[in-house]
Design goal:
The protein has 2 domains: 2-21 and 65-146, Dihydrodipicolinate Reductase, domain 2 (2-Layer Sandwich); 149-274, no CATH class. It has helices at residues 6-22, 26-38, 42-61, 89-102, 148-151, 164-179, 199-207, 219-233; strands at 2-5, 71-79, 82-85, 128-134, 139-146, 155-159, 187-195, 248-258, 263-270, 276-281. It is an alpha/beta fold. The radius of gyration is 19 Å and the shape is globular.
């Protein structure tokens, strides 16, 4: 049995919240550079240049990439041989988010009551927390900061088996088309297929944790990622809506078994920054 104090988890989350707010993920930077070279239009090229410059300034000056520093989503994989000590795990996660946002003067964007009073908690907490028990003696933490300019454009649809691959493609492309320039393209598109109404949405968000240079390990779904990316880029929405070849940098699919009568599909639209990080506590 491995004993892990929840303070280590808190510290890791505080550090990651700080880092992802100001530093672009390296595969994203490489994808932006590659996309810039592919653009031929004057406006699209200029926008890509500005995005790359923004990345450089944010990291150099240690200032947020975007004013919307996002809502924290935390995925925890907890080894079944781990004994967590030192207090509440959920409280430790939220303290980490509060510290990461507060100590770095990041915008707090969470309201406690979603419908009526909508008062800001002023700590960017509570975070959205998902936990999974796995084998082993370690805790894996993956964190994402999700802005709502893109989150608001996400969608779930309960397709039927008869809709097939074409139904999936049509729904994903239509969702991106409806997002248009309002969700800060070029996008990273997370797609969840299977599970249930709720779980396919979780899958679509988990898909965004994969780096943009990694593909689905299943050859069929990897091919579908490629088809979807080509279809989306053919929309000509382009960087920040100024038209061009790069409406999305990547499409990333996660799939799960589902019921014989259904085929749930979720599309989680994410802006080009796609802020996420990973840490392992042993």
């Amino acid at each position: 049995m491995k004993e892990i104090n929840v303070r280590k988890i808190e510290d890791a989350i505080a550090s990651m919240c700080s880092e992802i707010a100001v530093v672009y993920n390296r595969p994203i930077r490489r994808a932006l550079e590659k996309a810039k070279e592919a653009e031929t239009g004057e406006r699209a090229s200029a926008v890509m240049e500005m995005l790359i410059e923004n990345a450089e300034i944010a990291e150099k000056e240690n200032i947020p990439i975007c004013q919307d520093t996002g809502m924290a989503i935390v995925f925890l994989k907890i080894g079944q041989e781990v004994h967590l000590c030192g207090g509440s795990l959920n409280e430790a996660v939220n303290r980490g988010v509060e510290r990461g946002y507060g100590e770095n003067y990041l915008r707090a964007s969470v309201v406690a009551d979603p419908l009526y009073e909508r008062k800001n908690t002023k700590t960017n907490t509570p975070a959205v927390i998902y936990t999974e028990i796995t084998e082993g003696e370690e805790v894996e933490i993956e964190i994402m900061a999700k802005g709502f300019g893109s989150e608001n454009k996400s969608a779930v649809k309960m397709l039927t088996p008869a809709d097939g691959e074409k139904g999936v493609i049509d729904f994903v492309v239509e969702t991106v088309k409806n997002a248009g320039p309002n969700a800060c393209p070029p996008f990273v598109i997370g797609v969840g297929i299977g599970g249930t109404f709720d779980y396919c949405a979780v899958l679509s968000k988990k898909a965004l944790l994969r780096n943009v240079d990694e593909h689905n390990p299943d050859e069929k779904f990897a091919k579908l990622e490629e088809v979807l990316l080509n279809e989306i880029n053919a929309l000509n929405i382009g960087p920040m809506g100024f038209h061009g070849k790069t409406t999305a940098l990547a499409v990333q699919i996660e799939q799960a078994p589902t019921h014989i009568a259904g085929m749930p599909v979720a599309v989680n639209v994410c802006c080009h920054v796609c802020r996420h990080a990973k840490a392992v506590i042993r």
